[in-house]
Amino acid sequence: MTVFKEFQSHWTPIINNYLEKHLASEVDDKKIGKIMAYSVMAGGKRLRPLLFLSTLYTLGKKIGEQEVRIACGIELIHTYSLIHDDLPAMDNDNYRRGKLTSHKKWGEAEAILAGDALLPMGIQWIAEGSKSSQLVTIITRAVGPNGMVGGQYLDIDSTNNASVAGNAKFINRMEWLKTGCLIEGSVKMAAVYAGADSEQKDKLVAFAKDFGRSYQIYDDLVDVVETSEEAGKETHKDKEEGKNNTLTLLGIDQSRKELTNLIDHAKANLTGLNGQLLASFLDLYKKVL
Amino acid sequence: MTVFKEFQSHWTPIINNYLEKHLASEVDDKKIGKIMAYSVMAGGKRLRPLLFLSTLYTLGKKIGEQEVRIACGIELIHTYSLIHDDLPAMDNDNYRRGKLTSHKKWGEAEAILAGDALLPMGIQWIAEGSKSSQLVTIITRAVGPNGMVGGQYLDIDSTNNASVAGNAKFINRMEWLKTGCLIEGSVKMAAVYAGADSEQKDKLVAFAKDFGRSYQIYDDLVDVVETSEEAGKETHKDKEEGKNNTLTLLGIDQSRKELTNLIDHAKANLTGLNGQLLASFLDLYKKVL
């Protein structure tokens, strides 16, 4: 059993229980609460909250209820982004995590509003759990126009745009903003919250950058390597829809090589830290290699 | 010249300049920046930022660049809410503030993303301007599922629903959440930021509650009293679309009476404060009385 697996099996149920309990108790209107919880409780891997908590662990910070609140706030924000990405005006997806997407299940206005409710509530949980305006600055920058939403905009703007199909710089930037920024933000918040010194912080942020970049390549590979049953969503869609990503740029073999290199690089960044736990997160990617 | 008019003519250009300059300099991608700025710079009254700054003034707090950053953060958030409310899946409006709505001008995905970018950036400005996680808690609660978005959800959920048409309690609650919460939040943030004592804070929050409630009745009256040219958006739409609001419940005359009562009540709450400036905000409503 790897270190990641142990950490995951301990903390995932705690995260899931917190999310379920607090969405039920902290949302006054039960109907919108149910729509929000439908997507949040659809069985994600809780990768970003686990990364946040693992970084605290790496830095020797004790994890209690306040830290779990911050971690779960990150998951609310991640879920909002999935709901909006799936909308008819965006990727127009019917399935996510093996279930109907929010707009397919509840209607389009309801899905937009469930996302619009999860984003500020996620930031609220981070602010209340941390009592730190610095963490709020990190998370809001990570998901704003110079982060996640900016990446989604580039994606929408470039879909079926032949002029960017071979532009590696553009594609790297788009993928980094879309996926990497929130992953980096999760690690950066933990480093600031735990009071890491600047050397520790630099190493962790460098690790997070590689991890975030690898995650996107991994996710693109899942689209072609896995059947939709395994992935819980429709696969083989990216090419069909004219999406430009690292995979369409490099092909499967070269993407796998790039992913292998990134994993080695990510691990090297952890030298000198108690980095065994974080390094073991990278084992997740083995299934597409 | 009333006190409000003086305050407004001094601070509105400062707010507008700050918004224009910082949206241009702080959004990396010029295309999404332009889409965001299109709606932000469409000529709103800047009521919420002015209320925030006026409350600081009332409490004797000096206004500098950091305070203007917080005020402008509130306006970014307000603008996001307008863009999403206008979407085809929501109110499906073609005009706002005399211009095409964001989705009509730029496309639906672009409008959703411009809103999704303005919300976290607004919270970021508030966090950076105030360095206070408490202000972040106030604003995120005000616009989340138990605030503005919750009200928008009730509105969508109840449109063309005859069973709530005569339910004053439901309509009051919906209108309060939709409009009142962000107005109350603007005043509450100023009270906390300026270090108001608990008596001052209670009076200001009571004023904000009445002001927020009156604003919604005022806004509904604008829909029937003004021509669309005066209002800068399509009017006479609420009844046509089966919207339930105080006006459809009480009729025009009774709504005007309710508004007059609320104005008196709001003014009474300011007794004992240096409340002349805030009281003069209520003069705004005279044009529909």
Automatic annotation (TrEMBL), chains A, B:
InterPro entries xref list: Isoprenoid_synthase_dom_sf (IPR008949), Polyprenyl_synt (IPR000092), Polyprenyl_synt_CS (IPR033749)
Cofactor: Mg(2+)
One biological process term in Gene Ontology: terpenoid biosynthetic process
UniProt cross-references to Gene3D superfamilies, sorted A to Z: Farnesyl Diphosphate Synthase
The EC number(s) this enzyme carries: 2.5.1.10
Annotated catalysed reactions: isopentenyl diphosphate + (2E)-geranyl diphosphate = (2E,6E)-farnesyl diphosphate + diphosphate
Root EC class: transferase
Keyword Cytoplasm: no
Family per record: Belongs to the FPP/GGPP synthase family.
The protein's name in its UniProt record: Farnesyl diphosphate synthase
Organism whose genome encodes this protein: Lactobacillus acetotolerans
